[in-house]
Design brief:
Layout: H1 2-20, H2 40-150, H3 155-204, H4 215-220, H5 237-242, H6 247-252, E1 259-263, E2 271-276, E3 279-285, H7 296-301, E4 303-304, E5 309-310, H8 313-320, E6 325-332, E7 338-347, E8 356-363, H9 392-396, E9 408-409, H10 422-425, E10 430-431, E11 443-450
Antiparallel strand pairs: 1-2, 2-3, 3-5, 3-11, 4-5, 6-7, 6-11, 7-8, 9-10
Helix pairs in contact: 1-2, 2-3
């Protein structure tokens, strides 16, 4: 653009200089053409050059303005981005400071809990020493009593010795209760200590994790069958000893993914179990893909896949034999109303046909299972119910702890559509109380977990809808 401008100026200057400078050698014009003004063609040429120069200058100015506006916009965007980055940096610094403060608080709480645990252990040692001293005193008093009984002892002395013995016995009982309470407090402190460690791990991690609703994705894949562990590979004794006793121990070790794991409860033969976080699932019904009308041996050993299965009475007994077990029952009707109930739970061994013992703890379901506590397990080929004339397992299908025959059977027939006949409806998956009409449920899950964590995940699974459970 500058070259074009200079070129036009040079042309104009040349034309004017040639026309007005008399020193330039030119042919002598004729008298008629001589004039003091420039020729008209030269003036037009100069005007056109100046016009083009003005247009070029205007375009150059407009283009420069557009480039300046673009630069200004980019600078504004850069300023906004830099401001946002500075705000995010300040927020990250604040969160980092809060995390540091939380970590300090958690460490302080952990130290306090360690001090309390140490104090409790020292108190327990003192109580045990006092107990041994009291036992020694009791033994000495018994020896004195025996020596006195050989001689002449008055009735007043005998009464005094008996009252002293009663006092010592009551003191021993109170000491035993105190020891039990101290042990429970120690267990609670240890549980809180593990929770604090888990919180510390969450605080130190930059991205806090996922959720648990991976179960539907897992069930869409092909589930492993309920076969005995160690069939595809061998393990040594050290690996066998390191296997968790149940899913709650696996949870305490830091495992947070719902799925199938190998457990070894009560030093039994290892087997595969479905762990719903800390709960060991022993029964699951969801789509009717597995027939639950099986014989006694099948119910003892277990059947199905981990989409829909019965774990097996032998394995359930090994879980319950560890003590302090909670039976968690979760039900869902066809209106997708999900509720639960929990029992203190124990299961006898095969010598008692796996008699069940239940004590109601909590939940938002009615409690028909209270009429089934103390009952032996029954199947169509092994009748252990209280009905003298009929076999409840044969009439209602599926193995269960039938009474005569009772109001619940979660191992009944799975119905996708409501049967027409009343007798057929009673063969379904039942959970009712009183004289309510039979209704087959859509989903059931029975799990076992320790008493300390029994109510931890209970309330989260209950639906707000009333459904057919009321």
């Amino acid at each position: 653009m500058k070259i074009l401008t200079l070129w036009f100026l040079a042309v104009a200057c040349t034309v004017l200089c040639v026309k007005e400078d008399p020193s330039v050698l030119q042919p002598e014009p004729t008298p008629e053409a001589r004039s003091r003004f420039a020729a008209l063609d030269d003036v037009r040429l100069l005007a056109n050059g100046l016009l083009q120069l003005g247009q070029s200058l205007r375009e150059f100015v407009q283009k420069t303005k557009g480039q300046i506006n673009d630069i200004v916009q980019k600078l504004n965007i850069f300023d906004r981005s830099f401001y946002q980055l500075s705000v995010m940096a300040s927020e990250i610094k604040e969160e980092e400071e809060e995390l540091k403060k939380t970590t300090v608080v958690l460490k302080a709480n952990n130290e306090e809990i360690m001090d309390l645990s140490f104090q409790i252990s020292s108190k327990m040692d003192n109580i045990l020493q006092e107990k041994s001293q009291l036992q020694n005193k009791v033994e000495g008093l018994e020896e004195k009593l025996s020596s006195l009984s050989q001689g002449l002892v008055t009735s007043d002395q005998v009464a005094e010795i008996n009252s002293l013995r009663d006092v010592i016995h009551s003191q021993e009982q109170s000491i035993m209760e105190l020891l039990k309470a101290v042990r429970e407090q120690s267990d609670q402190l240890n549980h809180q200590r593990t929770q604090i460690k888990m919180l510390e791990e969450k605080v130190t991690s930059t991205h806090q994790q996922e959720t648990i609703e991976k179960v539907p994705e897992m069930f869409n894949a092909e589930a492993p069958t309920l076969t005995t562990y160690l069939t595809s590979h061998s393990t040594n004794s050290t690996e066998m000893m390191n296997l968790p006793s149940d899913c709650s121990e696996l949870f305490n070790r830091g495992e947070r993914v719902t799925g199938v794991y190998v457990i070894r409860p009560n030093r039994s033969q290892p087997f595969m179990a479905f762990c719903d976080m800390r709960a060991t699932v022993i029964q699951r019904r969801r789509d009717g893909s597995v027939n639950f009308d099986q014989n006694w041996d099948k119910y003892v050993d277990g059947f199905g896949d981990f989409k829909e299965f019965w774990l097996g009475l032998r394995k359930i007994h090994s879980l319950a034999a560890q003590g302090n077990s909670v039976l968690h029952i979760q039900l869902e009707d066809w209106k997708q109303s999900r509720r639960f109930i929990e029992y203190r739970f124990y299961l006898d061994g095969p010598e008692s046909n796996y008699t069940i013992h239940l004590t109601h703890l909590s939940g938002d379901l009615p409690d028909p299972m209270s009429n089934h506590t103390g009952m032996m397990f029954s199947t169509k080929d092994k009748d252990n119910d209280n009905h003298q004339d009929d076999n409840c397992a044969q009439n209602y299908t599926g193995g269960w702890w039938f009474n005569a025959c009772g109001e619940t059977n979660l191992n009944g027939r799975y119905f996708h559509m409501k049967p027409k006949g009343r007798s057929e409806r009673r063969r379904g998956i039942q959970w009712r109380q009183g004289r309510k009409a039979a209704y087959s449920l859509r989903f059931t899950q029975i799990s076992v977990q320790p008493l300390a964590s029994g109510s931890a995940a209970s309330s989260t699974s209950a639906s707000s809808e009333a459904g057919l459970f009321v």
